[in-house]
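agent> Task received from the user: take the single chain below, predict its 3D structure, and emit structure tokens. No templates, no multimer pairing.
agent> Plan: (1) validate residues, (2) run structure prediction, (3) serialize to tokens, (4) report one or two observations.
agent> Step 1 OK, no nonstandard residues flagged.
tool_call: predict_structure(input=
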Amino acid sequence: MTESVAIRRAWPADTAPESFTLHDGWSVRAFQRRGGGGDAKGSILCQGGRGDFLEKYLECLAHWHDQGWNVAGFDWRGQGGSGRFLADRSVGHVGNFAQWIDDLAEYYAHWQATTSGPHIVVGHSMGGHLVLRALIEKRIAPDGVVLVSPMLGFETGPLPVAVSAWLVRWAARLGRAEKPAWKANERPGANRVSRQKFLTHDADRYADELWWRAENPELALGPPSIHWLIQAQDSNLRIAQAHGPESVAVPMLILGADTDKLVSPQAIRRVAARLPKARLRMFGEEAAHELLRETDAVRDVVLNEIDAFIDTVAVAR
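)
tool_result: status=success, residues=317
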């Protein structure tokens, strides 16, 4: 675990975040690291979820790099080291999810043109949502895709989804669109102590996120805005519309947890069943939302599943 902590809490000596300027002048924080000593297996673009930042994925990126892959990623516009939309930096916000799709398509085109194939895109949570929507809208065309706990619906507990959606829109009409949807944490009614339980059973990996936030406070992000929730709900409906998932013919591995308290496991199962080339693996109570940052017992299985899948894509190509 000591060696693992060193990987999780420091950038590799040959890698550092860089600025990538999008067409409208907005700079996002990105990075690329070459693997395979110049003869890489291919290239992996890994995109995190809402409120994430590149440092949270250093460990899994190091794993894929050691396997011989080029690895890359960027912080979504408006979070991590890629600036903020609002004066209140603690609120996660976006005007429309389409803006993130545009950013993903632009960075993907640059990345694909400057790296060797096969090209694999990995998306966690909101990142998985955006990757799938970009596929449906034919904005990216990778050789393979891995979705990890994709945000395809919200886990609302006993509150029906329709009621939750109505409450969000009602709050927006009261002029609270740019206000935080709740006080703190990843979901309403969750205190600071319980936040880890929603994300991972691994206390050390959870502590890594807090350590990075302390080292670089600009990475921290709080709850989403009311408007973000509206846009997320609308975007989920967009994905679920007629023949959306059915149009995606890219080989895909989807990983999720049936006890996930942040995104809807039922929604993951419904959408996965509609994707013609997708294989689904769901974990049980041993896993929470952040499968790539879970305990070794879970994370090792997750990485083995992903490694086997991406190696198959590489051979098929």
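agent> Step 4: summary for the user.
The first strand starts at residue 18 and ends at 21.
agent> Done.
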